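A quick aside before the break. I want you to see a complete sequence-to-structure record at least once, exactly as it would be stored in a machine-readable document. Don't worry about memorizing anything.
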Amino acid sequence: MKAGDVMTRHVVSVRPETSILDMAQLMLKDRISGLPVIDADGTLVGVVTEGDCLRRTETKTEKSRPRWLEFLMGRDRLASEYIHSHGRKVSEVMTPDPVTATEDTPLDEVVHLMETRRVKRILVLRGPQVVGIIARADLLHALASTVREIAPSEADDISIRNQVFADLDRQSWAPSKLINVTVRSGTVDLWGVVLAPNQREAAIVAAENVPGVKAVRSHLVWVEPMSGMVMEDPSDEVAGKRTTTDEAA
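That is the input. The structure line, written in tokens, reads:
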């Protein structure tokens, strides 16, 4: 998937000269947390978000520090913070040079940008013009639509077992040689040994993602490599206790 496949095409924006009050009212009206800032020529010049309004003199939330710390910080940074907390126009509080993508940018690259640049939205450009925006909610929409497209499979037990083995073999985290798989009527049972607790959960997830799987039961034992301590799967232990109780009854 590409950025153009999931982006929101209707983009609400503001001008650099828009007042902070008008910007805040627009965010509240349209229930959005960030706005691209576009000049009179239609060129993107920045982005303004809810975070830019956290430290404001109107709400008495501007930063206050001891004088000795302000001396160490320097006047330039203090002046910058003053502009941000007292500025009256969007251009005075916005973040210039926002993170952008094009309609052809692969979706995994968009997510990588969000993670590395620590942003919640990516603006999509066609040349200098903003044609869309991708927020985290858009990624959730893409996930939901993809999940709906996955049709249930009627794969037989042997095919499911082979697929689980194949998927585990492809994972660098999986001790695939230590895991055995049995399948009956679409229910997968995992047996064997893992060397870290998360490997057990990851193996369950890998099996759940195989088409045709109806349920997964883990009987995997975690062996701590340094101490040799053995920890059974909690769910398997509970199931064993229930079986013993039923037999006694």
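Two observations worth writing down. The domain at 157-248 is CATH 3.30.1340.30 (Histidine-containing Protein; Chain: A;). The chain is about 40% helix and 20% strand. We'll return to this after the break.
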